[in-house]
Fold this sequence. Notes:
Layout: H1 5-26, H2 32-38, E1 56-59, E2 63-67, H3 68-78, E3 90-93, H4 104-114, H5 116-129, E4 132-134, H6 141-148, E5 155-158, E6 172-175, H7 178-185, E7 190-193, E8 196-203, H8 212-223, E9 231-236, H9 238-241, H10 245-253, E10 262-265, H11 269-277, H12 281-289, H13 298-302, E11 310-315, E12 322-324, E13 332-334, H14 338-345, E14 351-357, H15 364-379, E15 387-391, H16 395-403, H17 406-411, E16 416-417, E17 442-446, E18 462-466, H18 469-478, E19 490-491, E20 497-498, E21 520-521, E22 558-563, H19 570-573, H20 586-589, E23 608-609, E24 616-617, H21 619-628, E25 633-637, H22 649-657, E26 659-664, H23 669-677, E27 681-685, E28 699-702, E29 714-719, E30 725-731, H24 736-744, H25 747-755
Parallel strand pairs: 2-3, 2-5, 3-4, 5-6, 8-9, 8-11, 9-10, 14-15, 14-17, 15-16, 17-18, 22-25, 25-26, 26-27
Antiparallel strand pairs: 1-7, 4-21, 12-13, 19-20, 22-28, 23-24, 27-30, 28-29, 29-30
Helix pairs in contact: 1-2, 1-12, 3-5, 3-7, 8-10, 11-12, 15-18, 24-25
Amino acid sequence: xxxxxxxxxxxxxxxxxxxxxxxxxxxxxxxxxxxxxxxxxxxxxxxxxxxxxxxxxxxxxxxxxxxxxxxxxxxxxxxxxxxxxxxxxxxxxxxxxxxxxxxxxxxxxxxxxxxxxxxxxxxxxxxxxxxxxxxxxxxxxxxxxxxxxxxxxxxxxxxxxxxxxxxxxxxxxxxxxxxxxxxxxxxxxxxxxxxxxxxxxxxxxxxxxxxxxxxxxxxxxxxxxxxxxxxxxxxxxxxxxxxxxxxxxxxxxxxxxxxxxxxxxxxxxxxxxxxxxxxxxxxxxxxxxxxxxxxxxxxxxxxxxxxxxxxxxxxxxxxxxxxxxxxxxxxxxxxxxxxxxxxxxxxxxxxxxxxxxxxxxxxxxxxxxxxxxxxxxxxxxxxxxxxxxxxxxxxxxxxxxxxxxxxxxxxxxxxxxxxxxxxxxxxxxxxxxxxxxxxxxxxxxxxxxxxxxxxxxxxxxxxxxxxxxxxxxxxxxxxxxxxxxxxxxxxxxxxxxxxxxxxxxxxxxxxxxxxxxxxxxxxxxxxxxxxxxxxxxxxxxxxxxxxxxxxxxxxxxxxxxxxxxxxxxxxxxxxxxxxxxxxxxxxxxxxxxxxxxxxxxxxxxxxxxxxxxxxxxxxxxxxxxxxxxxxxxxxxxxxxxxxxxxxxxxxxxxxxxxxxxxxxxxxxxxxxxxxxxxxxxxxxxxxxxxxxxxxxxxxxxxxxxxxxxxxxxxxxxxxxxxxxxxxxxxxxxxxxxxxxxxxxxxxxxxxxxxxx
Length: 756
C-alpha cells in the first residue's frame, strides 16, 4: 500500500466538486494547473476568480518534504511554533551532507561519522513530531518523493527548489524556504501569488540520441533563467503523452532553472505504469477513477493560446541533443553546433570528467540508456577518454541497476559509482582533495541541473556543460566536447573507425524494482517523550533566537554593505559545498554571507569597503563590525537576484548579521519570499537605472517606511560622500500579512504570537 493513501483518496473524493465549481466560477475550461490550484484553496471552496500574477492566495498543500541541509533550519524554526505534531504528512531526506570522494561505501561511512550529530538531530526531531525519516544513503529527496509520495493532482511544497521534480507525476510541487514549510507543518495556510500559466505543446516523438533532457534545455534557451518567473509551465500534446513518467520528471526538475514556480504534466498511461511499477497500484486505481480531472480540459489543449499567458511549441521529432553552458543553464548549443561554438568561445575541448545521475537524471531509464553506451566500449574495443561517475538517485534504483548488471557494465569502463546522494551536483564533490580548487580552465559535462561557476567542484575555472545522461556518456567515451555521436566516429584500440550505436534502454525495469533496505524510518505514533538535544557548544547546530521586531520608525543612516555586480544567485549569497556542515548553525554559516558575490566597484569577491574604517575586508567581517556598532546596512543587486536554490540561509544570514534591506532590479520568486519571511525588506528599483546611482560610500535614509502599505512605493534618500543627494522610488510586492511579518520581525514570530 502507498504512503498516505487515505489522504490521497480524500483529495480525489473532493476533486470533481472543486474542479466543477472552479469551472463554473471562471466560466471557462481549465488547465491542469488551475484544477490543482483551485482544488487546494485553503477555504476549500471556490467563491472568486483569482488574477494570475497579481492576487495572493492561501493554499492547503497535501504534504511537505525537506532535505537535510534545509531541514535543519526548518525544523529548528518548527520547534518554536508550539505544535506537538506536524499537521500534514512530512518527510526529511538525508541527501546533501554526503561528500562524493572515493565511492559509495566509503563516502557514506565517512558522512555518517562526520555528520552523525546532524543526522541524529534530524532523526530525533522527526520522531518527536511525526515526520517520516529517510536516512543517509536512502536517496536524493526528489527521486525518493517521485518513487513513494508524488501523486497526480496533488499539491506539495518542499524546502528545495527542485521539489518541482514531482510535476512528472502530475503534481503541483513547489520549492519554498523553510519558513514556508513551517507554516504548512503547523497547520496554517500557505500563501502564493496566483501563478501565470505557460503552455508548452509537444508534438512529434523523441528518438535516437534525443532525450527528455533536451526538451527542458531547449525551453531554457527560449525562456532564459528568468522567463518562467511567477508562472507554472504545463506540458501537453502527443509528445508529452509519448514520454516516460521519469522523463517528465527530468523536464519538470529543470523548470527551476527558468525561474518557474513549478511545471507539470497531465495524468496519462506512463504515470499509471510508473505508479504500479513502484508498488502504488492503489494510487493508480484511485487516479483512474478521476482521471478526467487530472489533466487539462480538451478545449484548453486544442486552443492553448486562449487559456495560457504564453504558448511554446516544440516538435520532438526535429529536436536535437543539446549541451547548455557554461556558467548558466540557459546558454543552449545544439550538439551539431558545438564544434563551432567551442572554437568561437575558446572553450577547452578536452573533457576531464563526465558525470551522470543526480535528482535530474537518475531514473532506471536514464541509467539503462547510458549503460547501453558503456557496453559498446568493450564491444567496439574502445577506451573511455574521460573520467566517468554515476550518482544513483535512490537505493531502490541503485539496487535494481546492480541486480540487472548495469553497475558491472560501468565498472568495466572504470566508472566510479557515488553514494545515493546529491554529491557533485551541489558542490559536495572532493574533486581536488588537498590540491587547491582553482586550477586551470577545464571542461566537464554532466546531467545535473545547474552549472553556475564553482557549483560542482569549487573551481571558478571549471566550465560545466549540461546534457542528457546518454550524451554525457558518449562525450566521456570520446573525451571531447565537440564530439557529435549522431554523425561522428571514433578510432578504437585497433585503429579502426567505429560509430556508437544509438542508446537503448527500458522505461521501467522488466523484472520490476527491488530493494533490501529502502532506508525509511517510521516515526513514533506519540513522540511527546522524545528529547531533542542540541549542545550549546556545537559547531553544527544552534537553537534559534527570534529576530527583533521593527521599531516602527524609518530606517536612517544605513550604509552600503555590497553592490552586487551581475548574476547573484543563492550560491553567491550563501555557498554550499563545505559550508553545508553549518546549515544548522546560523551564526557559523553566516561567515559565508555574500563571499561569492562580485563587488560592483572592484569586480572582486568577498572584498568590500567599510565606511567605519575606510579599509577593504571580507563581507561577513565588515558586516559584523556594522552590527556591533548598531548601524543598519543595505545590499543592492541586479536582475533575477537570488536565482537558484531555495535555501533560506541566503535570507537568514544577512538578517542575522544586521542587513535591513535588499534593493534590486528584480528578484527570483523563492528568494523574495524568503526575505519577506525573515522580516527583511525586499525591494525593487522603480527605475532600474537608479542602480547606477549607488556609490561605494553612500548613506541611505528611508523617508516613508513608517507608512509602509500594500501597493504604495517607498521613498529612499541617497546621501553621497560629497553630501549631494538623490531621491529614488522603490517598488515592493508586500501585502498586509507580509507587512505584519516585517513588523513582527519574521513570519515565525507572528506564528508563535498567534499560537500563544
